[in-house]
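question for whoever is on the cluster today: can someone run the full assembly for these? two chains, 1001 residues total. i dont have access anymore since they changed the login thing
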Amino acid sequence: MQHDMQHEKDNHSERMKLVASLTSKRARQDFVKEVMKMPGGENILDCIQCGLCAGSCPTRFAMDYSPMQIIKMVHLGMREKVLSSSTIWICSTCYICYTRCPRAINFTTLMMSLRNLAIEENFVDKNGIKPKFHRSFFEIVNKYGRLHEPELFTRILKKSDLKSLFHNAALGWRLWRRGKLQIRAPKIEQNNDLFSILERTSKEGS
Amino acid sequence: MSEEIRIGVFICHCGGNISDTVGVVHVKEAMGSLEQVKVADTFEYLCSNPGQETIKKAIKEHKLNRVVVASCSPRMHLDTFRQAVKSAGINPYLLEMVNIREHCSWVHDVKEKATNKAIALLRGAVERARYLEPLTPKSLKVTKSVLVIGGGIAGIYSALELADKGYQVYMVERNPSIGGHMAQLSKTFPTLDCSACILTPKMVSVSQHPKIKIFTNAEPIAVEGSPGNYQVKIKIKPRYVDLEKCTACGECAKKCPVKKPSSFEENLVQEKAIYIPFKQAIPNAYTIDKDYCLFLTRGVCRICERFCKGEAIDFTQEDEIADLNVGAIVVCTGYSLIDPKLFGQYGFGLHPDIITNLQFERLMLQGLHKPSTGEVPKKVAFILCVGSRSTATNGVGYCCKIGCMNAIKHALLLDKAVPGAEPWIFYTDVRAHGKGYEEFYAKAREHLATFIRGRAAEVMPNGNGVIVKAEDTILGQQIEELFDLVVLSPALIPNTETQELAEMLGIDLGPDDFFLEVHHKLRGVETKREGIYITGCAQGPKDIRETTMESMATASKVATFIGKGKISVSPGVAYLIPGRCDLCGICIDRCPTKAIKKGKKEAIIDPISCVGCGICVPLCPQEAIDLKHCTESQLIAQIQGVSEEGETSPKIIAFLEKMTAYGSADLGGQNRRSYPPEVRIVGVPSTGRLGIKPLLHAFAAGADGMIFIEGDDSLFKEDQLREHVIQLKKDLGKFGIEPLRLQSTTTTLPQYEKIMSLFDAFVERISKIGPLSQEKREELKKYLAGEQYATRYAT
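^ ran it for u. tokens below:
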């Protein structure tokens, strides 16, 4: 009985905390303003929570919050939850939500901005698999002008564990047999032009 | 004018409201010393009966022929004082009012400064009064007939109301039959009345009413004239069937060899090239579609002609033009549905079982079936907000207003018609705002319609069915379901010719491309052009109940307008100075009310259509136009007076458009929002009235900065204002005056804070720039007195 009451009380104070965090207008405004300054976040206040993005998203099943919920959480200033969510890392940048969004919110670009913020503010381990994957990805693109899967794979692998090597060996074999894996790094024409574009954009980005 | 000008100045204390802050006695002395001022006096309450008597007595005693009253805002008591001077035998337009309460005593604290400002404002009024001319309002007979454009439910209701009131009504309908979209509907929400059962009797009443004449297959092609007397040309396209002879027996259609998709049935079924849209069509006669008829396209066939017993087929018909004289025009051109193909994810057009809600209406009436196989659909998805509430490309920003209720209606009808039916409604927000709508929504839930809160993401044909993918945002999970039929609710958009018609009529479209009313709440069916009214979905999406009510409101407004029999027009209109116009056409293009027409040698300004905004005056390169009651000489005299007087520095003249912007400044005064007394307000018909000349005069006379404030609802639109001010700034630059000395903005009535903070900021800015140098003023004066004076836009 006493235990129940205590539980009730805790529950209540927990709820009150949530209410307080929701109604702290200042915190909300600060986070919303911050996000609105990021690429992709310009018009997040236009969101009418229709759910078209969430319904369209091909990787929605693996996310802890739907894209629509992430935007609502930004509106409510729930900084920690947004930046530690798996959603921002699972987004495969297919842009389908952006092309369909009736309010023209560029959710895909916003995801990338939120990733950067999450790394900056230590919401993810800088050397953890997620940032590592993205970093390796861009390093390889910067090197060859396009992606080279085996290298990406070995890079992530080197920095994580050996177990997954065996786990993925069979898949790698099958891919290789069908000619989907190239051992040699690919080459593209006029890669110098691409590199100069990449260089300039990375400067402007920073 | 040979008569001697004798001015009387009367200053009101307003029981301390004015006299506590403004030294009225001081003002009186300053005014009394001016030339031609025969008497200057103060009074406790000028608006009271004894106050008015004082004015009347002074007029008689001093043989005054101009009166200046300094008191509250003219928006408050202009009529009072006009009546007073009129009863003393002076033309009411020879009275000038100065606002020293809302624009002076209520907004300033330092008595000396407030007094100086009041003197300056009065000085301007006295200078202006010298140039005032007597004017009389014009009155004109009104044609007691009405043109109704569009024969849908809005047109039908407006026409019946007006005809019942006894006015002659002409109804123009583009299609072969009147009835509009409502004729296509199965049932109406929330009462589930049969749509045809309530509409067709009204259609019959229209056709049988002695005061209504219907033109079908017709549209207006030209509108001329002025409010109360419009001349409209109607083009009547041939239907190749004699309306008098056709008995709608249908023999012709049985024999006609050509088939075409029926637009009334939303292309779901085929009909013949000679067709009647629906059985209860008014006029009840067949029509030949000239794009399909074999004789009209290839010159062979004429089978219908052979089989028509009444000899009603007439291939010799040609376009006819009808000329109508009407006093007022009611626009009820309705809506179209947005093309769902614009939104690829809904797969419209990929599968016959993905249809619009209007097609579903027709399916219900044809006997519900799947267009693909003819089977009865059981599981039906209703997808709302297709293109509505969207700020992205292709979509429209507003709510379609009928989609929710319509889908709920369809769900209930489906539930009734098909045992074991499963209606699913994919909604964004259910908007059940009307009378009985929330209850209707509850009824659908009782019938176990499935409501999914989430905009459908994708519709994919899948063999015999259609898959709908969406997120249930309440459960936070994606769902994918197979349906027999998918019904889309496309956004409502204005009909295709709306833009064209707006240009023809000289009325505005809103940002949503629907026709724009004058005021959202108070003047919801009137347009900026008097005598032209809008009603129904032409003005914005609405349901049938709202449409009929609005139509009755429109009918009442029209009856009030033409019922008076004559129209009285303010005499403050633009007029042409003879012998100067070279027909360059600039004013004709820019007149917002289309009041200026091309004449033989000179432009012709219609004093009835003209609303006296004065935009045309500074536009004319020949200086051939002037505006009565705000002539160039009156305006310059007033501005000079206001600018010259007093020693304050800097001196800012704020030109406020006299309705909204001026009223907004009044509101600021009523709320005692103080601002620097350096700002002196002058009311003008619109800031477009001001060319470079008055500005140069003001700078020469002592002003250091100008502010233009235009009402948000003014005919002089924000972008025009911006363009105008940019041009003026360039011109000022040519005279060596810093462009920063001129600023403009628009405002709505309650936004007085915007104006006042602009005043604050602008005074600060001009203080920083410093006053205009004395040499510059002398230079300007010399220039203005010199010969180049006439070439206004020196290049």
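summary bc i know u wont read the tokens: Chain B is about 30% helix and 25% strand. The CA atoms of residues 20 and 105 of chain B lie 8 Å apart.
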